[in-house]
Amino acid sequence: MIVLHSTDNTAGDLTQDGNKGLTKIQYDYLGHPIRIQFSNRSLVEYVYAADGRKLREKHTTAVEGLHMNLGQTFNLLPSQIHRFVAARSRN
After folding, report:
1. Domain assignment of residue 71, yes or no
2. Is 13 inside any structural domain?
3. What proportions of the chain, in percent to the nearest 5, are helix, strand and coil?
4. If exposure means fewest CB atoms within 10 Å of the residue's CB, which of 1, 62, 76, 81 is most exposed?
């Protein structure tokens, strides 16, 4: 048996989905997702043009102080790798 743990807003947009680790989804007035929070403390934020085109997608990881845009690379310090692995293993 599959138990669904999801919630929709009055417009029918998904606002959380426990099965996928989505703790909160916020939308703009056109129904585009603008902020998605995950149970592992990661975050994705979107910026759209007035015509609905996605202009920017920003991923914030569960590693404190590490913020990256899609396609950007970053070398982690050994202490950051340890914290990231520890945070992922708790989920």
Report:
1. yes
2. yes
3. 15, 40, 45
4. 1
10 Å CB burial of residue 31 (0-12, 13-18, 19+) is exposed
Mind listing the pLDDT tens digit for each residue in 25-50?
A: 999 988 999 999 988 888 899 999 99
Q: Domain limits at 37?
A: 6-89
Q: Is residue 1 part of a domain?
A: no
Res 51 pLDDT > 80: yes
Number of domains in the chain: 1
Count CB-CB contacts under 10 A for residue 72: 9
Flag whether 55 is in a domain. yes
- Write the Ramachandran bin of 62: left for phi over 0, alpha for psi from -120 to 50, otherwise beta: alpha
